[in-house]
Amino acid sequence: MKKTLLFFIMVFMAFSVSGQQPGLHHRMRDLQKAQPEELHKKLSEIRETLKRLHLTPAERHLLKSQKGIKYELDSIVFTTLDGNTLDFVDEMKSEFEYDGEGRMTVEREYQWDDTFDEWVPFLKNMLTWDNDGNITEFINFAWGGPDEGWYEEDKEVYTYDNDGNLTEVIYYLRDYDDEAWVAEEKFLLTYDGDGNLLQEIFYYAEFGTDPVEWTEEQKWEYEYENGQLVSVTEYFFMDGDWEPYWMIGYFYDDDGVLDYMTQAEYNEDIDDFEVDTYIDYEYNPDGEVSGLYYFHYDPDTEEKEPTMKWEYEYDGNLNIVMEATYMYNDGIGDWEKSTKNEYIFDTDVSVEETAVPYYLVYWLDVKNMLLEMKYFRADIDDEWYLRDHAFFYYSDYDPDDDPDPDPDPDPDPEEYTLTITIEGDGIVQVNGEDYTEAITFETGTEITLTAVAGDDYEFVEWKGDHASDETEITITIEDDLDITAVFEVVSSAIRIEPAELTIYPNPFRDIVTVSNIGAVSTITIANMLGQTVMEIDTRGANNMTLTTGDLNDGIYLFIFTSRTGDRVVRRVIKH
Asked: Where are the domains of the chain?
């Protein structure tokens, strides 16, 4: 059977109901939501119309016994790319507590404080469960500092019928003056005899009423055929009546597999819904969704224009290991990369053996223990670069404790790549042969590197993955290596005097002047990703005025280089 329909409505939108999910869940969704501005706009429109379809934070948890739980997810640590240093630095951490059946009861979130070099708490979530594995209460706390500690901000209360269906959700805010909870919003849900959701109604609480008076605002109606959802229609309550707003349609092939979806907005002029969006589905041979394609539909021309697509890959256990987003560029008539997530699992450890936050299971539909998550963005050259990284830490877990029970008696040796960079004038010999390009070696191979300086240069050091000032070094290959050989001018070097260089104004707008650059041969301007955006030949000038109107606002590196390779780097701001 294919994955549940609602899971595939929007992988990116499935848990976007404000306040319903623990804070880390919001953060993990934010990693996926960090799209370019135009994608943000499109996704926000769809989220607003679809968010109430997924009002199911209290999905029945997998009931476990403490005896059957081998590991607990203790924490998740997020790192992010520092735009100044291009290093990954700690950003956020979440820690968890569980009850005796492996259900998360507490989640605490921390932010990394660079000033004091420590984790600082800022959010806490507490969950209460019933005996059937349903969440009955979710309370959100904020951190008031060491003196105030945690204080309650808001909470959600969930009610179920005898079949375990969620029937009511009420949202409360904390009134600190009266030390009481004040109702703010409510959802009522009804079902048919088969447990299919038929209707949701959203209410808001009238201000200052006691007891609370609820006012209807929105409604969603669900229609089924042969047990399959075929439409969801949204209404707004206006002038004493329900007015239709939009509709989502679901269309299946002859085998009952979801083929495509439509989104339609109500047109008062024709008193009917007009389709404006198509979402086509593709599946892999295992029946898993491999692609989602978004099209804008023009009812006048009856043409579908591509706008976005998602691609998915799975491992042998049907865990999602990759999901990527693309935007369609009309100018070039092709897809451009936007964001990508990669997930790394221990496929030998079942999630049923592990206590984890419930939203991990339902969000990713994971089968195995999740170890890492990598979030990529696309750069201006349409290449992926790693932007954020999440690491999952489990108690009493060591991946080396359980070696492969059926090891290959003659495994193929691993191979690694040696890459050498040369600074200055010189060559590097690898086992007596001049290095010209990256070389691949089998693990355990012993190699000798020899540095040979050019005329008027001398060897200074090896740096990178191996550090030494010896001209000849011997290394055993056990991993990929990036090594730099540094050569410097022996004498007669024209040196740049950093104290004399001036750049003004800083910050600058469209024009910037550099002075005292007589010893400089080239000026390179690079952005914080290290990409060169301008390069200027000084032609012996001592002062130059540079026009930078084409550069975006931001921080840039001005790199001054002499004819002999002497360099000075200054950081400059454009605004």
From this structure: 11-225+232-242+341-394, 415-489, 502-574
Q: Is the peptide bond before 22 cis (omega within 30 degrees of 0)?
A: no
- Picking from 45, 520, 41, 3, the residue whose alpha carbon sits closest to that of residue 327 is 41
Query: In 3-state terms, what secondary structure has residue 24?
Result: helix
Amino acid type, 491:
S
- The counts of H helices and E strands in the chain are 5, 36
pLDDT tier, 29 (very low <50, low <70, confident <90, very high otherwise) = very low
Give the C-alpha separation, 98 to 65, whole Å: 12
Phi, psi (rounded to 5 degrees) for 406? -125, 70
Contacts of 515 (CB under 8 A, 6+ apart): 501, 502, 504, 542, 543
C-alpha to C-alpha distance for 194 and 175, rounded to whole angstroms = 40
Q: Is the pLDDT of residue 271 over 80?
A: yes
Q: How far apart are CA 526 and CA 561, in angstroms?
A: 13
CATH number for the segment(s) 415-489? 2.60.40
Phi-psi region of 133 (alpha: psi -120 to 50; beta: other; left: phi over 0): left
CA 189, 190, 194, 196 torsion-angle sign: negative
Rounded to the nearest 5 degrees, what angle is found at the Cα of 561, between the Cα atoms of 560 and 565?
Answer: 155
SS3 letters for 356-379?
CCHHHHHHHCCCEEEEEEEEEEEC
- pLDDT digits 0-9 by tens, 318-363: 999 999 999 999 999 999 999 999 999 999 998 888 999 877 776 6
Q: Which element (helix H / strand E) includes 47? A: helix 37-50
With CA atoms as reference, report the closest residue to 56 among 289, 357, 363: 363
Q: What is the pLDDT of residue 293?
A: 95
Beta bridge mates, 98: 104
Question: What's the pLDDT score for residue 549?
Answer: 79
pTM (two decimals): 0.61
Q: Which class in CATH covers the domain with range 502-574?
A: mainly beta
User: What does the alpha-carbon distance between residue 39 and residue 49 come to, in Å, rounded to a whole number?
Assistant: 16
